[in-house]
Amino acid sequence: MDIPLDPTTQGLPSNLLIDTGRADGHGTDDTDSALGSDTYTLTTSLSPSVRNYREENGRRYHAFDENAYYLPNDEVEAARLDLQHYTWKLTFDGAPGRVPLVVGDRIRRVLDVGTGTGIWAMEVADAFPDKEVVGTDLSPIQPDFVPPNCEFVVDDVEREWAWERKFDYIHCRMLCLGMHDWPRFFQQAYDNLEPGGWLETCEVQFPPRRADQDLVQGSGSIGGEKPESKFLKWGDYVYEAAAMGGIDARASEKFTEQMSAQGFVNVSRADVQWPIRAWPKGRKNKVMGRLLYENTQQALPAIAMALFTRHLGWTKEEVDTYVEECVREVDDLGNHFYYPM
In the chain, what are the domains? Predict the structure, then answer.
């Protein structure tokens, strides 16, 4: 059975939690997508040590503690992150997120945690030249030339934050394989937001799922129980390996309660499914499915390699073989997989 995106959420991603913060800030304006200044500046204040990347099983990783974040930071991964960014844009119908950004409003200072290639931060800085945008990441893989109102800082978000000025909007997404202590993150975000500020998180949960899950479990199947899905099992392995590294790959299930406990108010959660391949109805879903099919082919080895070899004792060859089997399963048009977001 096809599971279409919930029309009431307009395709907004799930576990995307927005908070009007510590006071009474409420925004309702639509996002202004006009382009800003095309003037760019060069920033070069990086310690050489942060570029001492590690090579492991044919992939390149950041120079911080090896278990701080399990995905690579090489060119292949950078291309995948940009493709993933366009999937998020499609989810939000072209907007940066659900927080109401407009030129001239009270949101002046923006923090993008785990900025990756910096594409989200640069697009926001371009579209809103009146805002100061800061992106942080473990790896300095962002471009040298950036909008004049945008800067990037190499930083580990799980260490003590030391910002001299607070932010009006803190944005983060897809950090679940790098965050060991979400309550502490929410506490630090709360302490570094101006009154009325916003926090927005966008996360995926493991394992992925399928629309015809009942067939996998044998209910309604013809001729016996359908064989166990290697792709879905891949997600179980990710969850298991991440847990061995102190990470909860389904942490977003607890975000609403954790944010409320910290003191955030007006917490809003939206759940959607990201379809893999163009199996669901609707043009938007089909375009998203094609993007996610491409993304999945790169995400499977990127996510699995470090996790499985470090924590499950797999060899590189075993990871490669299993990923190939998963890709063949995703290629089967009879399978309707999706990511719970």
Answer: 7-340 (3.40.50.150)
